[in-house]
Amino acid sequence: MKLFTVVAVALALPGVPAAAQWEPPSEVLLIDARGAGAWVLTCALQNKKGETVTRALRGSGKRSQRLSMLEARGGQCSYQAASDQQLTLTMRRGLYSCPLPTETRKGCEQVIEAGGSGRFEIRWLG
Questions:
Q1: What is the pTM (predicted TM-score) of this model?
Q2: What is the pLDDT of residues 37-67, one digit of tens each?
Q3: Does an H or E element contain 7, and which?
Q4: Considering the domain boundaries, does residue 17 fall inside one?
Q5: How far apart are CA 93 and CA 72, in angstroms?
Q6: Residue 119: how many other CB atoms lie within 10 Å
Q7: Which domain holds residue 42?
Q8: Which residues belong to the signal peptide in this entry (predicted)?
């Protein structure tokens, strides 16, 4: 019972991260895409062996999706928002430069208006 009490108190203390707050290491490329409707995000990324790996996300509702890759060495992503809905892309900084125009506390983001499309580069800083 004492161990349970110590763990419960430790989790309640400020500055002690809870299990739900875990963040992946900075070597992991993370791009979150949020939007309703039929949006698309496609990335052609180079892995640490120099091979090109293609990752794609497709929206079909109002939920968020996450594209991730360990130690992506660079690449290019393209996006297309749904014809009648916005698409929000958020990229965690980590070991990557932020190619999206709005700086956030943890990275950068861009809101793409309905029907909008474009591309951005992924650059590894490690």
A1: 0.79
A2: 999 999 999 999 999 999 999 998 768 899 9
A3: helix 2-12
A4: no
A5: 13
A6: 11
A7: 25-123
A8: 1-20
